[in-house]
Task: structure prediction
Amino acid sequence: MADGAGEVSPTGGVFSANTEVTLTATSSNFYTFSQWTGDLNDTNNPSSILLDSSKTVTAVFDPISVTNEVPPWWLNQYGLLLTDEEVLSDSDSDGVPTWKEYIADTLPNNSTSFFRIKHITNDANALIQFDSSSQRVYSLMYLDDLGAGTWAAVPGESSIQGSGLNDSKSDANPSPHRVYRIDVELQNTP
Result:
């Protein structure tokens, strides 16, 4: 049996009494074998078991995990290594680490692809424009004094799902020295 994404060979069957069988676990992409459970408690792969009675063995496969919750399939999609070092590096030298490119839904292997505010119009209302992803949520944050204070959310402009196009957020009460940023988060999935 398999718990997670992978296969066990042989898959089961009827064997002669007192036969030693070697089990091999093969993980699917982006998973790794972690252990055998049931009548075989072992972390070796392959591993052998003596069939002196009916036995139940399960191979446990865990997803490959890298830092900052960047999924291995995403790294693989861009030809990047499935390592913490790759996730923390700036593989395209655009000043943005790979894990932040994942959060922003930008291309980690294209130095011209990074999240940024594209335009700010400051009339009676401030209008902040940026490219968005439909798989992310955005919050418009402001600070009235760069030297002190805490970033605060502009009322009504928090946790809004992106359209996947050119989006904008507005501030109906801008002050002359107000500074803006856009926070990007992964969309919560059920």
Remarks:
- The chain has a mean pLDDT of 90.
- The radius of gyration is 25 Å.
